[in-house]
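Record type: monomer structure entry
Structure origin: computed from sequence
Chain ID: A
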Amino acid sequence: MLILFNNLTGRDKSAAVERLISASTPRQDFFFMVILSMITATFGLLLNNTALIIGSMLIAPILYPILSLSLGIILSDANLMSRSLYTILKSIALGVAASVAVTLLLSNNLTEITPEIMSRTQATLPYIIVAITAGLAGSFALVKPQLNETLPGIAISVSFIPPLAVLGIGIAKFNILLISGSLLLFLVNMIGIIFAGMITFSLMNFYVKKHKAQEVVKEEDKKAEEEIKFAEDHIKHKQ
C-alpha cells in the first residue's frame, strides 16, 4: 500500500507544490470565485435546490488553501501557514458577508428554514469520516497529475461552502441554532481535511520540498502584487 505514496519523482513533488501554492494564492480572482460560490450556495439553500448547492461546491476554490495549510504544517513553514490562514479567513469573511447580503435581500420572499439548510447544522460522525476521506483523496489527487480531473468530484464531497452559506443565513436571521451548527460543521470538515492532508504529504515525504515551497510563495506573491499594482495604475489612468 505504501508504494502508492512513494512512487513520486522529485519533479512530481515540485509540480504539486507549485500547483497547490499557485491555486491558493490570495488573488482578487480567487476571492471573487469564493463570493460567487457563496451566492450560488445561499440561493440553493434558500430555494431548497440541490443542483445549485452542488454547483456552488464545484466553483469554490477554498479546498486549495486548506490543503496548502496542511503542507505548511508538514514543512514547518510559518510563512506558508500564515499565508494559507489569511486566504482561508478572508474567504470566510467575504463569503459569509455575501451570504448575509443575499439572505437579507430575499428576506421578504424566502423565510422558511429548508431541509437543505437544516442538514448543514449537524456535525455527526459520518461527516467527520467523509471529511478525512475526502482530504486523503484531494491531497493524493493533487499530487498525481493523471488524477487531477477527479478534484471537482472531491470538492463536491467536501462540505465547505454550504455550511458557510448557512452561517450567513443564520447571522441574517439571528438564528443561534443555524450559526452554531453550521460553524461547527465547517470546522469539523476543515480540521478533517487538514489532518488528512498532513498524513498524505507526510507519507509522500514532502519535507524535502520546503525550499521549493518558499521559492514558489515568493514568486506567486510577487505576481499577485504586480496584478494589484497594474489594476490600480489602470484605474488611475482612466481617471
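Annotation 1: The domain at 8-222 is CATH 1.20.1080 (Glycerol uptake facilitator protein).
Annotation 2: The two ends are 61 Å apart (CA to CA).
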